[in-house]
Design brief:
Layout lengths: L1 H6 L2 E7 L6 H10 L9 H7 L5 H11 L6 H17 L2 E8 L1 H5 L5 H19 L2 E9 L4 H11 L8 E5 L11 H9 L3 E2 L1 E3 L5 H9 L5 E4 L7 H9 L3 E4 L1 H6 L11 H7 L2 E4 L11 H12 L3 H13 L5 H20 L5
Parallel strand pairs: 1-2, 2-3, 3-4, 4-5, 6-7, 7-8, 8-9
Helix pairs in contact: 5-7, 8-9, 15-16
Bound molecules: hypoxanthine and zinc ion (ZN).
The site of hypoxanthine (HPA) has 10 residues, from loops.
């Protein structure tokens, strides 16, 4: 089963590029930029990565992102993630980035987007991985600040497909960003948002009704409301589920109690993702492997999850079909050969 998962063609749809900053790369970039970090060794960093809730994590995540200053830093961060994608047979990645984490400390929007998008271009050419960028607003900041970020992004519109909403959920409901989301849609960005990670099902309702999102990041707490579940299914919205993140942030107490299988049985379209792999103990394949073991998922289930990852990506239909064919070929071949995975 492990080899079946490792070789499975898949897409990652919920990934914060700042959350892929591994301690070793953080040290390297900090040294290069002469920036002090409050850790002496990789072991010390790993010890610090113990969280009780989302906010515990965010405090450390924003602090670590301070080492990122130059275009080269953003390039290396992104290319490093995409090299890991190649190893894991991630064929397509939809990458979130948080411009405000950087522009608020004087790093220009141009530096961030240019470094990230150059890495994406090189990954397409050298690693044959396709990417899409999602610009995410920090929800603990004001709507006015999100408007400023939207304006900053306009010269680079061709490089960005969608917008997202992340950071501290409770107390910052989706409706706070109603106007800026309407403006984003006017500009042609596809609306997405984190909802129902720590926030209640009400936040998910707002995200779909007020912001009109096309995909739900996390969405765990949607299960609290039967009518909401029905509505999500009716609108054919997918949930980007992040099992190891849910454990690390105490959204779920134990992988054995993770609602992923229940979601699938209810008819919800779900995908498996790593969220912030450098912080939550594993990349996308580890997320697949651990949740498969905990919930006794079958190969068929795993195949369905990978299928969803392409089906509910933001790729155009021709590209979706290309990857779905690749996946189907892989699945039928492993079955025909009856390989003992
Ligand atoms: N939730 C909210 N904000 C985030 C996350 C998350 O899981 N990861 C990075 N920013
Ligand atoms: Zn996330």
């Amino acid at each position: 089963m492990q080899a079946f998962i490792e070789n499975l063609p898949k897409a990652e749809l919920h990934l914060h590029i700042e959350g892929s900053l591994e301690p070793s790369l953080m040290f390297k970039i900090a040294r290069r930029n002469n920036i002090n970090i409050p850790y002496k060794s990789v072991e010390e960093v790993e010890k610090a990565y113990q969280f009780n809730c989302l906010q515990d994590f965010l405090d450390i995540y924003y602090q670590s992102a301070h080492v990122l200053v130059t275009q080269q830093d953003f390039y290396e961060l992104t290319y490093h993630y995409l090299q890991n994608c190649a190893i894991q047979n991630v064929r397509h990645a939809e990458i979130m980035f948080d411009p405000q984490t950087h522009t608020n400390r004087g790093v220009s929007f141009e530096t961030v987007i240019t470094g990230i998008s150059k890495a994406c271009k090189d990954a397409q050419e050298k690693l044959n991985i396709s990417t899409i960028l999602i610009m995410s607003f920090l929800r603990h900041l004001s709507e006015e600040e999100a408007f400023k970020t939207l304006n900053d992004s306009l010269p680079y519109k061709a490089k960005i497909t969608a917008v997202g909403l992340d950071s501290s959920e409770i107390g910052n409901p989706p409706s706070k960003f109603k106007n800026v989301y309407a403006a984003c849609v006017e500009e042609g960005y596809i609306p997405m948002a984190h909802a129902g990670e720590e926030g209640s099902s009400e936040y998910v309702w707002e995200a779909i009704d007020v912001l009109g999102i096309k995909r739900i990041d996390h969405g765990n707490n949607a299960l609290q409301d039967k009518n909401l579940i029905k509505e999500i299914i009716n609108r054919d919205l997918a949930l980007t589920v992040c099992p190891l993140s849910n454990i690390a942030l105490n959204v779920v107490d134990d992988l054995k109690n993770h609602p992923l299988k229940k979601m699938m049985e209810l008819g919800l379209k779900v995908t498996i993702n790593s969220d912030d792999p450098a912080y939550f103990g594993g990349n996308i394949n580890k997320n697949y492997i651990e949740i498969q073991k905990a919930l006794q998922l079958t190969k068929e289930d795993i195949y369905q999850l990978a299928k969803n990852s392409f089906q509910y990506s933001l790729l155009d239909n021709a590209k979706k079909q290309y990857f779905l064919n690749e996946l189907e070929k892989y699945y039928t071949q492993t079955k025909e050969k009856q390989l003992e995975f």
